[in-house]
Design a protein that fits this description.
Layout (H helix, E strand, L loop, with lengths): L2 H4 L11 H10 L3 E7 L6 E11 L2 E12 L6 E8 L7 H16 L4 E7 L3 H13 L3 E6 L6 H7 L3 E7 H14 L8 E2 L6
Parallel strand pairs: 4-5
Antiparallel strand pairs: 1-2, 2-3, 3-4, 4-8, 5-7, 6-7
Helix pairs in contact: 2-3, 3-6
C-alpha cells in the first residue's frame, strides 16, 4: 500500500480501535469479525458480524454489509440486521467496528445509507434509529428520473442519510460503556430490500 495514496489520518483520540472492540466483544462473550475485500484495489467490500459461540458452532446475532470507495464520503452501508435473544450490545459493536474500520483503514470520514421506505411506520422508525447514530437526512430518493441510478444502487426508495464516522464511533462507544442498546430485535434495512 502506498503511504501517499491511501494513508488515513490517525485514529481520533479517546476512541476505541478495532482491537479494543474485539476485546470488548470477547469480554461480553461475543465474537466480532470483519470480512473485507478489495477487488482490483478500487473499492472495499465490508461485512461486519457478531456471533455467540455455542456447542454446535456459532450463532450469528447481527451483521452489517456495505462497501467503501476511497473518498472522504465513500462509506456506503447497505444492510444492518440484529436478531435473536440476548442481543444487548450487538448493534453498538457492529456500528463501532464499522466506523473504527473506516477511520483506521480507509480515507472515508463520512458514511451514507438509505432509510428504505417500504412501509411508512417502519421508515419513520429507521430514520429515528439512524439519527441515534449521528446520521442526518440528505435527500429523499423517490420515483423521479434523476433518482433512477441512486435507487438502483441503493435498492429502493427512501431517505438518503449521511453521518460522520467519528460521531458514530463516539456514540456507539458511549453506548457500550453505558450498557444502552436500542436495536434489540431490529431488522434495519438501510439499503437493499433483500
Amino acid at each position: 500500500m502506498s503511504a501517499t495514496a491511501t494513508a488515513s489520518p490517525p485514529q481520533p483520540p479517546n476512541l476505541p480501535g478495532l482491537a479494543d472492540l474485539e476485546a470488548e466483544a470477547q469480554r461480553r462473550g461475543l465474537l466480532l469479525r470483519l470480512q473485507v475485500g478489495r477487488p482490483l484495489g478500487l473499492a472495499w467490500s465490508l461485512r461486519v458480524g457478531v456471533a455467540r459461540r455455542q456447542d454446535k458452532g456459532l450463532l450469528l446475532l447481527g451483521e452489517l454489509k456495505g462497501w467503501a470507495l476511497p473518498l472522504e464520503r465513500g462509506l456506503c452501508l447497505d444492510t444492518m440486521r440484529v436478531q435473536g435473544e440476548d442481543t444487548a450490545a450487538v448493534g453498538a459493536l457492529i456500528w463501532a467496528a464499522t466506523f473504527a474500520w473506516a477511520l483506521e483503514a480507509t480515507p472515508c470520514r463520512r458514511a451514507r445509507l438509505l432509510a428504505i421506505r417500504d412501509q411508512e411506520a417502519q421508515h419513520r422508525r429507521l430514520v429515528r434509529y439512524f439519527r441515534q447514530w449521528g446520521f442526518e437526512p440528505l435527500r429523499p430518493l423517490e420515483g423521479g428520473a434523476g433518482d433512477l441510478a441512486p435507487r438502483l444502487l441503493w435498492g429502493g426508495a427512501g431517505l438518503l442519510m449521511e453521518g460522520a464516522c467519528e460521531t458514530g464511533l463516539r456514540r456507539s462507544a458511549r453506548r457500550l460503556a453505558m450498557g444502552l442498546e436500542f436495536d434489540q430485535g431490529l431488522d434495519a434495512k438501510p439499503g437493499a430490500n433483500g
